[in-house]
Design goal:
heterodimer, A: alpha+beta, CBS-domain, two-stranded antiparallel sheet, elongated, B: 67 residues, alpha/beta, Oxidized Rhodanese, domain 1, three-stranded parallel sheet, 2 helices, 4 strands
Chain lengths: 163, 67
């Protein structure tokens, strides 16, 4: 659609026309702000905890577990040096043998969600699939934060209460 | 032929005064649009529809995605 609009603008005499090819879906997936009626509702990217601990594939589980639990968390996201999500450890994985490397203990390739997904959709999915947390990533796989089901359900309930 | 750009370039051009135009239907624009964008649905991109645009400044058009 936008290539046709760009061609028409050029036909109407506009000299400098650009086409943002990947469009609104790309903008939303990057977690960037928008305006409009939907923009007022919280989305996954807004509610996700940005302070979630992270670790690398080759870290030792025991050390990671101590650090994560000392910070009050029961989950850690495994990322590479570009902050791309590689895996996730929740309570069950964190309780494995502390001598394991993270790559041996983690849950590889967890389902991730884009920042623009609504709280209603996230809460429904997390309840249906019994997920206590879900990583939120940009379209290129970079970590935005970890969405906790308790946060998603609370946000969704507060939307329902609004007139 | 319009130049294809990514979101970094969009942000840069907008900072420098480019005009952002969403060409999706008006109801989709009302729900969500890029900050500062104006709505000119594709079917309205004609001489009258674009009369509010400044021909002296760059224009960036976008829709949902490249499909």
């Amino acid at each position: 659609m936008s290539p046709r609009a760009a061609a028409r603008l050029e036909g109407l005499g506009f000299k400098e026309v650009y086409d943002y090819e990947s469009g609104k879906s790309d903008w939303l997936a990057a977690g960037l702000p928008t305006e409009g009626t939907s923009a007022q509702h919280p989305r996954a990217g807004h509610v996700a905890r940005k302070d979630v601990p992270t670790c690398g594939l080759h870290d030792r589980l025991g050390e990671v577990r101590d650090r994560v639990r000392a910070a009050g968390w029961d989950a850690v996201v495994v990322v590479n040096d570009k902050n791309v999500v590689l895996g996730l450890l929740r309570s069950k994985e964190l309780d494995k043998n502390g001598d394991l490397r993270i790559e041996e203990a983690m849950r590889p390739g967890p389902s991730t969600f884009r920042p623009h997904v609504s709280m209603e959709e996230m809460a429904k999915h997390m309840v249906e699939h019994n997920l206590v947390s879900s990583p939120i990533t940009t379209s290129d796989g970079k970590l935005v934060g970890l969405l906790l089901r308790a946060d998603a359900e609370r946000e969704e309930a507060s939307i329902d209460e609004k007139p | 032929m319009a130049t294809l750009i990514d979101r970094r370039r969009v942000q840069e051009l907008v900072r420098n005064g480019a005009q952002l135009v969403e060409v999706l239907p008006a109801n989709e624009y009302a729900e969500d649009h890029l900050p500062g964008a104006i709505s000119i649905p594709l079917r309205n991109v004609d001489r009258q529809g674009v009369s509010g645009l400044d021909r002296g400044r760059p224009v960036i058009v976008y829709c949902w995605d490249s499909a």
